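Teaching assistant here, posting this on the class forum so everyone can see the example we discussed in section. The complex has two components, and the goal was to see what a joint structure prediction looks like when all of them are supplied at once.
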Amino acid sequence: MRESQGRYDNLDCDDNDNDNDNAAPVPRARVRLPCPRGIAIKPLFLHGPSPSFRVVLAVVLAIGLIVADHRGRQLSALRSALAVLVYPLQLLADLPVRYAREAQDRLADARQLRDQNAGLRRENLVLSARSQQLASLEAENMRLRDLLGSSFKIGERVLIAEILAVNLAEYRQQILINKGTDSGVFVGQPVLDANAVMGQVIQTNPFSATVLLITDSDHALPVQVNRNGLRSIAAGTGLGHELDLLHIPKNADIRVGDLLVTSGMGGRFPPGYPVARVTSVGHAPDNPFTAVKAEPTARLDRSREVLLVWTLSPDQRQDALSGVGSGAAAGGGVPEAPARRERRP
Amino acid sequence: MSEAVRRGAWALWLSLLAALFLSVLPMPGWIEEFRPPWVALTLIFWCLTLPERVGVLSAFAAGLVLDVTTGALLGHHALGLAVVAYVVVELHQRVRTFPLWQQTLFVWLLLLVERLLYLWVLGATGQPTPTLVYWMPTLLGALLWPWVFVVLRDLGRRAGIL
C-alpha cells in the first residue's frame, strides 16, 4: 500500500498547489482526486494514516485495554458509559424470552393455575410455620452473641432483580441483571437465588449490573463445612457445575454430601448461606492435599430472579470497595491471594 | 466529503446493530456453541466493499462495543476484529476478484485468525482452555458467508453506497 501511495504521489492533481508547498513537511503522501468524490468514481485510495499504522495503534490500544481491565477496575467508568448505550439492545435481545414466558402464563388454563396456587399455599404454610420461631431464635442468638462480645448482624435488606436473557462472553460465567446503581447496587455485592449463593456483582452500570458467578475460574470464596466447621476456599473451575475446594489436608473430616456454607471470612459474603454440596473426595498419592469437588446448590443456569443482599455495615462496605480497587475481584481479598499463588506447583 | 460520508451511513449502522443483536440473542443450549461470529462477518463484508469508509479503527470501535455488550474484557474482541479488518483492507482488491468458494475459504481463514487471537487472550488471562467445539463457529460463519454477502450487498445497493 505504501509503495502504491509513493508511486501515485506525483499524480496529485489538486488545483491549489500553494497549499501543497506550504504543507511540505507533511510526512505521509496523500492522494487527491481530480474530480468531486462520490459522484463519478469512488475514491480508490485510503486517506489519513496508512492501515498499517492504524492496525499497530489498534493492537497496542487493545492489549493495553485488556491488561488494564484484567489487572484492575480503573476502566469501569468507560465500561458503564458504553453499557448505557448498549442497554436498549440488551433489553431487545431479552424480549423474545420475556414474551415467551408471558405467553406461557397466559395460555395456562384454570386447572393449572389452581394447582399452582394450591402448591404455593402449602409451601407458604410450611415456610411460615418454620419462621414462627425465627424471631425468638434471632433475639436469643443476639443475646448470646452479646454475651460472647462478638458483633454479628443478621438483619439485611434484599432486592429482587431479574436476569436479562442475554448471551454473554463465552467461557466466562457471568450474568446480566436489570438493577444497577440507580437501585443502589454496588460492586462486591453478594447475589443469591432461592437456594444458595450465586455470585457477586463485579460491574455496575446505571441500569444494569454484571454478576460473576461462583463457578467462574476467576472467583473464589471462603466456605466452611456446615457439619463440623472445617474451613476452606471454594474456587470456580470455569465449568458451570463444579467448584474446587483448595487446601484440604489429607486427614480432614470431609465426606461426599457435606453441605458447604459461606464462612464470612472474606468479608464479602455474609456468613451462613449455603454454597455447594460435596460430590467427590479423592485421595491421590502424589497430591499433598485431598482433592475435593463440590456442586453449587444454586440453580445457576435456571434461575430467572436473583436476590441482591445488603448486609454489610457502612464501614465494611467501604473496606470492600477499596479491596476492589486493588484488583481482588474474587471472594475475600485476604484468603484468596495465597490460594491463587499456591495452586500452580 | 461530509456528504459522501453521510450518504447511506444508515445501512452500515443498521447492519452492525443487527449483527450485535444477533450475537447477544439468547439461543437454546445446543445451538449456543455454534453461534456464528456475526459482527466479524459484517465487518469483513464492509471492509471488503467499502475499505475507504470501514477500516481498522471502525472494527476496533465495533469490537469495543461488542466487548461491553457481552461483558468480555475491554479490547478482547476489538483486538481480533482490528487485525482481521487490517488484512481485509490490505487485500481487498485481490479478494474482490476471487470466485465465491475461494472468498469463502479466505473468510474462514480470517475467522480462524480472529478466534486464535481471542483464544490467546483467554489463555493469557488465565481462563481454562476450551474444547475443540471452540472452533466450530468459524466453520459455520464461513458457510454462511455467501448468504451474508448477498444480503448485505442488497442492503448496500438499496442504500446507494455500493
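For the discussion questions: The helical segments of chain B are 2-6, 9-24, 29-32, 38-49, 56-70, 76-96, 100-124, 136-159. Chain B touches chain A through 51 residues (CB under 8 Å). Think about how each of these relates to the inputs above.
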